[in-house]
Write the structure tokens for this entry.
Amino acid sequence: MADAQDPALAEVVLGRPKNPAPDATCRFDQVEEPVTIVIFGVTGDLAGRMLLPALAALYAGGNMPENFAIVGASRTDLNDDTFRERMRAALEAFGGVEPKTWEGLAPRMSYIRVHYDDPASFTALGAALDALAAEKNLGGNRIFYLAVPPTAYEDIAVNLAMAGLADETKGHARLVIEKPFGRDLSTARVLEQALHTRFSEHQIFRIDHYLAKETVQNILMLRFANAIFEPIWNRRYVDYVSILAAESIGVEHRASYYDHFGVLRDMFQNHMMQLLSLCAIEPPSLFEAELVRDEKTKVFRALRPFSTADLAENLVLGQYASGVCAGVKAPAYLDEEGVPGESLTPTFAAMKVYVDNWRWQGVPFYMISGKRLPEKRTEIAVQFKPVPFSMFREIFGDHIKANRLTLRIQPDEQVSLTFQAKAPGPMCLRSVTMNFNYYQGYEGPQLPAYAKVLLDCMLGDQTLFWRQDGVELCWKFLAPMLGDPDPGRLFLYKAGTWGPQEAGKLLTGHGLTP
């Protein structure tokens, strides 16, 4: 007779599944081939705050190859030693670095001064990279990370190509760019033409760091690896889906950029659309980059187009006025340094969209994002339909609160399911919530979001990156909303509130109605 403690018996009879050891199944891939990572704009905020700490994390975790180099490139006049000093200071400012990690990174760092609009600078860059590769046995694999303003993308891409640095005869050459990918459909296509001067689509990695967040990647796992969710993830059982990306900060030091783009271009064209696609996507046959991106593209194609006539019913735009946020007085957007006094740039948007396909027909997707809201929070809520008939109506009435699945992305990463249960004692109904904290009980390896996307760049995995057709489809969808709003349709809201009161009609039932 089988022992009651036998794992197989426990799994079948007691419902206690065997959990594989984390180190056996949960490993990040290690880059095996040598690589040179060239960071343009290396003296800027993005490189110091995100890229250098990410590379340090990859090195400390053993994910980097034995031979690699980090080459800084910018217009600042530095030498190798002063460059390393600046990078050490940046790492200390943004979380610190272990002495052993720095001792391994420092010798692999060097600097080359480059003027982005000067073809001769790129010829010199190519010669320097060839010399470094020969000296350090780095081979021909190169990644060019454009941590620069979007206005410099075209110059750098074209000059890299003219200098022969897009050539892949000696190894891969990959170009990494950050959003925004253009300012509208026409500028996105101009950028695409510049990038494709010599770079092919498989060489271009368009980063959306939201996709590297663990709980964002978990959306597909939750849906397609669990039989209890996928059968009800459709129009028959889902009432609506809401996607919230709230920020408590204002424009800070980014006024010159933000006033040119606003919330629709800054958040909706990329982050919000990616979250929408993961919620609505059909299951690909395999979890492979092109198959996943094919399914995302189908979602973007199925978005119900907006017309200028129905914008007022489906879109509310706002701009923050002065108020109190996190207990601190906050200025109005128009009073922020660098913002023109007559600016009509929206800092808040609430949008209702529909995905016109078999799975989602008639189900509204609410997308809300804004600055100077009460707290920093990103989450997706799947609101299920109420029970069709209440056998408890004589006890509780006709209305029973519907179930809700909430996927919290930041700041605390968790999944919660709200459902109805009997309260202890008398016959009373109450809402209860089951919470899953994403990191509870997990002791395996972890990487910050930027480390994950850099690792994927080195491995050549484009699953978490935008493809050009998806970029263009999203710009096309947003096109009717991108002009300056009618002053009468740009509603003010106090800093520290959930947006303008006019958004209430659109968001009724969402739970965050202003």
